[in-house]
Amino acid sequence: MNIHEYQAKALLKEFGAPVSAGVPIFSADEAEAAANKLGGPLWVVKSQIHAGGRGKGKFKEAAAGEKGGVRLAKSIDEVKQFAKEMLGNTLVTVQTGPAGKQVNRLYIEDGSDIEAEFYLSMLVDRETSRIAFVVSTEGGMDIEEVAHSTPEKIVSFSVDPATGIMPLHGRRVAEALGLKGDLAKQAVALTAKLYAAFVAKDMEMLEINPLIVTKDQNLKCLDAKVSFDSNSLYRHPDVMELRDLTEEDEKEIEASKYDLAYIALDGTIGCMVNGAGLAMATLDIIKLYGEEPANFLDVGGGASEEKVTAAFKIITADPNVKGILVNIFGGIMKCDVIARGVIAAVKAVGLQVPLVVRLEGTNVEEGKQIIRDSGLNVIPADDLDDAAQKIVAAVRGGK
After folding, report:
1. What is the pLDDT of residue 154?
2. The predicted structure's pLDDT at residue 130
3. What is the CATH T-level fold of the domain 114-239, as seen in this structure?
4. Which side of the chain, N or C, has fewer Cβ within a 10 Å radius?
5. Residue ranges of the chain with pLDDT lower than 50?
6. Is the distance from CB of 356 to CB of 390 less than 8 angstroms?
7. Which residues of 237-271 are buried (b: 16+ CB within 10 A; e: fewer)?
8. What is the CA 272 to chain-centroid distance, rounded?
9. Using one digit for the tens of pLDDT, what is the confidence trace for 295-316?
10. Cβ neighbours of residue 207 under 8 Å, at least 6 residues apart?
């Protein structure tokens, strides 16, 4: 789960991390009061969407101006003007894709005098099962571009959970960023605070880009992007309250109600599969035969008929779906349960597109018989390769 910048900064502030004063607003009418509360003389007006690259982004609407999604205001009138231009309009960045995202919230923040910009992030290193720090002197830039062009400017290291965070880790951050004296001491303290926040809130990723040195020689988190491990959210009702459903795909929201692993994609073939590995293989083979999957959907190993029905309804709710492939290898998951779920869903929502079903494993004959007896116009498949070819042909109008 992702949260907005202003929410991330409020959370980091709870752990003592230095952030600028700021006020979130939800309508242009709140802009003047927010600016007056901060006092100025410089304000930064920031679009709040779940995507990076806001400063370099462009609004679709001409009325929003040409200054991007992060703007420096030198007067209260400019704060009000920017708020009117940005709220309610669609911001397109390198991370939103061409569709962009509508800006429904702004963060009005005190301006900062910047002497230097750095990059700092934390994430879970899957290879070592440890929390890793990634730091670079190239702050304010896309870290992917830094990794591609100047990888030697990126320093990474992990923290042994047996010892937890220690001063040596903070000193390593300071050394990587070239910080000396009091700034190095601040880096040691900040490293410990960020680690504490990461662990306490079950974060999946924490990115500060940029981490700045101000003119008065203080470290400050000028931006903050945080995502959480969705499997741990039951432990954090306070974090769950920060969820912004307007930033999420409606189909993914519905899937989360049934504990379905669903991710919307841009293709035309809807997929319902059990097991993440088989689901990825299904997506790959669809692409191999020249079409694009419309989703990743793993119903899990022990899905109920209700869960399968919900999954099928979510797939058919996508207007881009021109065909559906059900690919089930029954182990714990029984093929007859899948068959009954598919039939229940088709009866509930109808079937307007070709449907290819490949079943194998536990109770496979029962499952196939249930589908045969249903009277549905289902295209049977013997294996994954056969299923992929048949759904691609059906979508393309082939026989």
Report:
1. 93
2. 95
3. D-amino Acid Aminotransferase; Chain A, domain 1 (3.30.470)
4. C
5. 399
6. yes
7. eebeebbbeebeeebbebbbebebbbebbebbbbb
8. 21
9. 999 887 666 677 778 888 899 8
10. 120, 121, 122, 224, 225, 226
Kind of pairing between the strands at 22-25 and 106-110: antiparallel
Catalytic residue among 6, 107, 119, 262: 119
Q: Is 207 a catalytic residue?
A: yes
One of 5, 207, 247, 291 is an active-site residue; which one? 207
Short-list 385, 332, 384, CA closest to 359: 384
**pLDDT confidence of residue 302:** 66
**247 marked among binding-site residues:** no
Q: Is 85 annotated as a binding residue?
A: no
Q: Is 274 annotated as a binding residue?
A: yes
Confirm whether residue 250 is marked as ligand binding: no
39 burial (CB, 10 Å; 0-12 / 13-18 / 19+) is exposed
Read off the pLDDT of residues 1-18 as tens digits, 9 standing for 90 and up: 999 999 999 999 999 999
Sign of the alpha-carbon dihedral angle for 16, 20, 21, 25 = negative
234 included as an active-site residue: no
Domains of the chain, by residue range, sit at: 21-110, 114-239, 249-395
CATH architecture designation of domain 249-395: 3-Layer(aba) Sandwich (3.40)
Tell whether residue 332 is among the known ligand binding residues.
yes
